[in-house]
Amino acid sequence: MRITIAAVGRLKSGPETELSNRYIKRFDGSGRALGLGPITIQELPESRDTSDTVRKQDEAARLLHKVGEGAILIALDEHGSNLTSQAFADMVAGYRDDGTAQLAFLIGGADGHGTAVLEAARKTISLSAMTLPHGFARVVLLEQLYRAATILSGHPYHRA
Questions:
Q1: Phi (first) and psi of residue 75, to 5 degrees
Q2: Rounded distance, CA 105 to CA 77, Å?
Q3: Residue 10 main-chain phi, psi, to 5 deg
Q4: Percentage of residues in the chain with pLDDT exceeding 90?
Q5: Side-chain half-sphere of 47: how many Cα atoms within 13 Å?
Q6: Which end of the chain offers a freer environment for a tag, N or C, measured as fewer CB atoms within 10 Å?
């Protein structure tokens, strides 16, 4: 099952990019044997509109267009479900086991997701009750994807 992370905002070179690349490499290495991966990152520039409502609508439309049809969409949103790492791993495995070809995680812009994304998403999850910078959110998501692969493979990385 291919994994896509579509995010509003581009990471600049630096620690977030280094950590993102590290977890992508780890996930792609361990996920392959589990039928997971590779991970693809798709970045979109932030909307420049002055209205937050229009910005969210524009970003939502572009996120959905970038991912395309056929993917199962998971929106990252502060109002989403809180999952343990085990529950997250079980969710990923469940989609894989159901024959999902592509699972896409959508990270919105600074104003959050537009309604089009929230309505199209199969599930909405929260990484934290706190607001995270977009680069940190991406790193946390990538680490959790790697952790999910280690949980599913029985690797001792996850010590719950």
A1: -90, 135
A2: 11
A3: -110, 135
A4: 91
A5: 22
A6: C
- Give the DSSP H/E element, type plus range, for residue 26: helix 15-31
Tokens at 76, concatenated: 């990252």
Please give the CATH topology (third level) of the domain spanning 2-153: Alpha/beta knot (3.40.1280)
Per the prediction, the chain carries an average pLDDT of 95
Could you give the CA distance from residue 149 to residue 159 in angstroms, rounded to a whole number? 13
Residue type for position 69 = E
Burial of 123 per CB tally in 10 Å (0-12, 13-18, 19+): middle
Question: How far apart (Å, rounded) are the C-alpha atoms in residues 100 and 80?
Answer: 21
CB-based burial of residue 71 (10 Å sphere; 0-12 exposed, 13-18 middle, 19+ buried)?
A: buried
C-alpha dist (Å) from residue 77 to 22, 86, 103, 109, 160 = 24, 19, 16, 10, 25
Give the pairing of strands 2-8 and 102-107: parallel
Distance from C-alpha of 8 to C-alpha of 51, rounded to nearest angstrom: 16
Contact between 37 and 87 under an 8 Å Cβ cutoff? The reply is no
57-93 pLDDT per residue, tens? 999 999 999 998 999 999 999 999 999 999 999 999 9
